[in-house]
């Protein structure tokens, strides 16, 4: 499909194409959901480690309803399936936006899929190994004078919000690359609005991070600022040449 043909597509044809890509993405997520279900107990041990490492040996998470463990395992398999399927999901995203690109830009499909997957997984790893353990230790230290009864629903709802939120935010450089290629975003615009971006970054950090302290929020905000600076460099390299 050429760029001209894409421009001639009607609104409903765009919706049909979007629906097709969403259905393919859901299919891949469901496939990896089934794969993850076979290892769901090991996935549980892996994702519970950031909290359990700070609790007394043998301590377990609690549940308050009969169906809660089953629903928790379902969510674990789903989140695992999403992370495993992310290369296929990002490829579907590329297929949706590629018709709006020139032929020479369409050759970037492999770098696009690789770097979206890389930054998504990098964000999830950053949240798992750094932000979330820090948050767990912070909350346990605050409540050290009390008996901790932490339910699996409370813990994993928080874990999913942190891990997914950070993984999505780490896509900022790829988004900058794409918008610069489409001539929508420029490095000059990013530099001009840097001070507003700093404010927005700390607002996002306050929303995603589970603790109210400035140290934990900064732990999340500083990498975001570095990603923003990287986005400026990317937009400068791949974007159109700017004139004074």
In angstroms, what separates the terminal alpha carbons? Answer: 36 Å
Instruction: Estimate percent helicity.
Output: over 70%
Radius of gyration, in Å, reads 21 Å
Number of strands: 0
Task: Report the uncertain regions.
Answer: 1-6
Major sheet summary line: none
Main structural class = mainly alpha
Overall pLDDT: 86
Strand content: under 5%
Per DSSP, the total helix count is 11
Summed up, the domain count is 2
- Rough outline: flat
Run of helices and strands: HHHHHHHHHHH
What does this 3D model show about the protein?
This protein folds into 2 domains: 3-170, no CATH class; 172-244, no CATH class. 77% of the residues lie in helices and 0% in strands. It has helices at 3-8, 11-37, 40-52, 68-97, 103-106, 109-142, 152-169, 172-181, 187-192, 194-208, 214-238. The longest helix is centred in the middle third of the chain and has 34 residues, at 109-142.
Give a brief outline of the structure:
This protein is mainly alpha-helical and 244 residues long. 77% of the residues lie in helices and 0% in strands. Helix 4 packs antiparallel against helix 6, helix 6 packs across helix 7 (152-169) and helix 8 (172-181) packs parallel to helix 11.
Characteristics:
244 residues, mainly alpha, 2 domains, 77% helix, 0% strand
List strands and helices in order, with pairings.
Elements: H1 3-8, H2 11-37, H3 40-52, H4 68-97, H5 103-106, H6 109-142, H7 152-169, H8 172-181, H9 187-192, H10 194-208, H11 214-238
Helix pairs in contact: 2-4, 3-4, 4-6, 4-7, 6-7, 8-11, 10-11
